[in-house]
Write a structure and sequence with these properties.
Layout: H1 2-24, H2 29-55, E1 58-61, E2 74-77, H3 83-92, E3 97-102, H4 111-118, E4 121-123, H5 129-145, E5 149-152, H6 170-179, E6 183-189, H7 197-203, E7 208-217, H8 223-245
Parallel strand pairs: 1-7, 2-5, 2-6, 3-4, 3-5
Antiparallel strand pairs: 6-7
Helix pairs in contact: 1-2, 1-7, 2-3, 2-4, 5-6
Length: about 250
């Protein structure tokens, strides 16, 4: 019963802003950006508060490791769910965070409009690699100009079972060479349990969505350094996932 109540209130909190976004999107980029920011910031806080209250499902973001971060940086992370976007927006605060995402998300109601309104990088699922690289170059210029935080998921797709997938280098290398930012390696866990609304009922009771900055690397200066950073990112993230999953089920440690 509490699972249905959680879904009802989460849906109710998001539906009006989503409707407003769909209405204003064709006419005003400024208004669309306002409602997109509203959804990803205020609604995100409320949805996690509802999950915590009704299902004892907690957002656990490590605050101490945020002290490692420079003024501007890029993020390399594992990927488990569309909720990862909301989690990083909540974790880093404000509206600075921008993502490299597949353009197939444009077909997801509300999500596509939100990502385009906020200026995220939409990579064509099909097409030549040069098109994707050009999109990342334009994205890099925007984030530098606007003092934003670019986030890339080198696995390229969401993990449905929480297992860490292969890290692919092409997108990361292009972002690194274009943006020239320090690289923050971050790990998150818990999103694969809430890949759908139905899973809120079946999988969330007394769980947690954890996120943590593991290490910050200086901006890679060569392909060898890029390769090293990506290899170390996968290793550090796997180690952190193993630590989290060895904790007792009710633990709130991060």
């Amino acid at each position: 019963m509490l699972g249905f109540i959680t879904i009802f209130f989460c849906f109710g909190e998001v539906v009006l802003p989503a409707l407003m976004l769909c209405i204003v999107y064709p006419f005003s980029r400024k208004a669309a950006l306002f409602w997109s920011d509203y959804i990803t910031c205020r609604c995100a806080r409320i949805v996690f508060a509802l999950l915590s209250f009704y299902r004892k499902f907690h957002f656990l973001g490590d605050r101490e490791s945020l002290a490692l971060l420079p003024a501007q940086f890029s993020v390399v992370s594992n990927h488990q769910s569309l909720f990862d976007i909301v989690v990083y927006l909540k974790y880093f605060g404000g509206t600075r965070t921008r993502f490299v995402a597949k353009d197939s998300l444009s077909s997801v109601p509300m999500v596509g409009k939100m990502l385009r309104s906020q200026g995220h990088c939409m990579i064509p699922r099909r097409g030549s690699p040069s098109v994707a690289m050009t999109a990342i170059d334009r994205f890099s210029r925007r984030v530098i100009q606007n003092n934003q935080i670019p986030v890339i998921f080198p696995e390229g797709t969401r993990s449905k079972d929480g297992k860490l997938g292969t890290f692919y280098a092409a997108g990361f290398r292009r972002l690194s060479e274009s943006a020239r930012l320090p690289v923050a390696v971050c790990a998150l866990d818990g999103g694969w349990k809430i890949s759908s609304l139905g899973s809120i009922i079946t999988s969330l009771h007394r769980g947690a969505y954890r996120v943590k900055v593991l290490r910050v690397f200086p901006c890679p200066q060569s392909k060898e350094e890029e390769k090293h950073v990506l290899h170390e990112a996968a290793r550090l993230i796997q180690e952190q996932l193993d630590k989290w999953r060895s904790l007792p089920a009710a633990s709130l440690d991060v």
